[in-house]
Structure prediction request, 525 residues.
Amino acid sequence: MSPAQSAEHPETAQPPKRSSREVLDASDISRALTRIAHEILERNRGADPVVLLGIPSRGVPLAQRVSARIQAVEGQSVPTGSLDVTMYRDDIGLKPPRGLEHTDIPADGIDGKVVVLVDDVLFSGRTIRAALDALGDIGRPRAVQLAVLVDRGHRELPIRADYVGKNLPTSLVERVTVHLTEFDGEDAVLIADRAADKAADKAADKAPTGVKA
Amino acid sequence: MKHLLSAADLNRDEAQLILDTAEEMRSLADRPIKKLPALRGRTVVNLFFEDSTRTRISFEAAAKRLSADVINFSAKGSSLSKGESLKDTALTLQAMGADGVVCRHGSSGAPHLLAKSGWMTGSVVNAGDGTHEHPTQALLDAFTMRRHLGSLEGRRITIVGDVLHSRVARSNVLLLSTLGAEVTVVAPPTLVPVDMTRWPCVTSYDFDAVLPKSDAVMMLRVQRERMNDAFFPSAREYTRRYGLDRNRMAQLPDEAIVLHPGPMNRGMEISAEVADSTRSVIVEQVTNGVAIRMAVLYLLLSGSNETEEHTA
Prediction:
């Protein structure tokens, strides 16, 4: 659910006054993904060992875009899939039950491969911890790396990204929203003041969304 | 959703959510480690007042694959055979801290009583109550059909046999019509319940006329143990008019599938040839049953209780 939709939530009948500003536009995102694709190839000396796994929902199209760029550079396709971490989250017993997203592990599996996890925003690191647990139940990769479009800081766990589209220093009261054409009709990274956006908060928290605040 | 007592409780979105979740759960069967951590620390009690093999094992496998602790509780060999009441059993379960209770009972409405009486706070899943309902069976049937036929919208599904004693039939008619399917029930007049006109389906007494217009045929077990009257003259006559054999199967459209909730009376409502044919998805139904029950237990038990009540 995008923030625009959640504004239609009954509790937020009054559309909140938005004071969001765009920090990355479509071409910035495109350039960042191209650079990440090159960095992945450079670090792993080619595409051979690499498996890309996007974390739903917005990590999945990002993984596919990186995959397409690697293919364009190397002329070789990399196995690309998705990894749902819902059941591995540490807050699963604290929130209402959530539907599952699709997990799609490439046919050759991940054993002995270099798995590159792809997500939109790196924040507390808890999603990535859940993803590492999920990977452990699926196989034993040779190494796991992490690519994110935005790193907004405020880690709560000892986790870091290997490939970062944009380091975005934020304060905890701000919200970072990633829009992708596949879900929102446009490519953009927005940053908003939480105070102005507070009403939409509750609804957005429930949704499996690109809003990481 | 707090409880799953009847297929009628599910609206279309909820039913689709369960089926979609089951689709993800089913992919687990292909993994080396068939275990998910979603219900770690939760306790699921299988409370079976009536005999059952596949349903109990299926719920047990589902709960274990989600890392829940499972306690099996069957009427035989428990205090129930000493005459303990349902209420006292419920209070015992509450005192033990059961988060979910999977209940099968010979009396229609027993799971409903367990859920609504306030004797216990856990979620209740109806695993078959008397001749009333068996919602997870209907869900796994719908799931199996969806995997073979795609969307059930406008699909023609025929349910044949002992509708009067079948909780599977009632749950299926309710769920399949919620999902947009056109359901036809075929049965001898003596095995049609009196309130049938209120069911969202068409009734027919002529199996052969319905066959060519069916995308899926579900054969029901003739429940001899519940029959204390003569509902039909002889088993042979029942088989001749309402049994699915090779000749009848040939009348079905090419893509049509055959289901049976089990246990089968081979040679009675379904011939061995049909049961073992490529059209039959009966073994697959059992596999899908675990996935559906995982989905139901996950959606009922994984979240916090407090917030669940707000959203229920």
